Fold this sequence. Notes:
The protein is α/β, with parallel strands linked by helices. It has a domain at 53-175: Rossmann fold, CATH 3.40.50. The protein contains five helices and nine strands; from the N terminus they run H-E-E-H-H-E-H-E-E-E-E-H-E-E. The protein has a seven-stranded mixed β-sheet with strand order 5-6-4-3-7-8-9, with helices on both faces. It has a two-stranded antiparallel sheet with strand order 1-2. Helix 1 crosses helix 3 and helix 3 (37-50) packs across helix 4 (64-76).
Amino acid sequence: MQNSDVVSLVTSLLATVPDFPKPGIMFRDLTPVLADAEGFRAVVDTLGDRFAGRFDAVAGVEARGFLLASAVAYRAGTGVLAVRKAGKLPGPVLTEHYSLEYGDAALEVEPVHMPDGCRVLILDDVLATGGSVNATARLLRRAGCVIAGVGVVLELAELGGRSRLDDVELHSILSF
């Protein structure tokens, strides 16, 4: 599927919910895109093809990033890594704290599942301020990984998340 066709498909399926989760916010809901077989396949193929041959594993950022990472990893024949919210993983973990527009949060990963030098593709549904994706990149580097790139379905460009990713290649299917 051509990139312009993917953009059109995702745009047609994307739901916009005004005043959610609070007044003045235009929430972009990707749930209908992921629920549609053609839409989901187009997103997975586009993200996987963009970085094909350049990653050894795919990291999904909790929670919708898990869906994308699992599908892209399966398609590429690689492993998938779960980047979880703090307190959700057993055993030894690395933790990375980051700021959100409404507070602080932390993400964790189990480093024993990644060999040094592992090339990891980070996937998430939306890039907004870049806090969680940037924290994921820092976390994986601390675990000895090389960041192969970042892929998202939707980038909220006005929130400036791209600028927080430094030298990491970012591919967004759709940008507002």
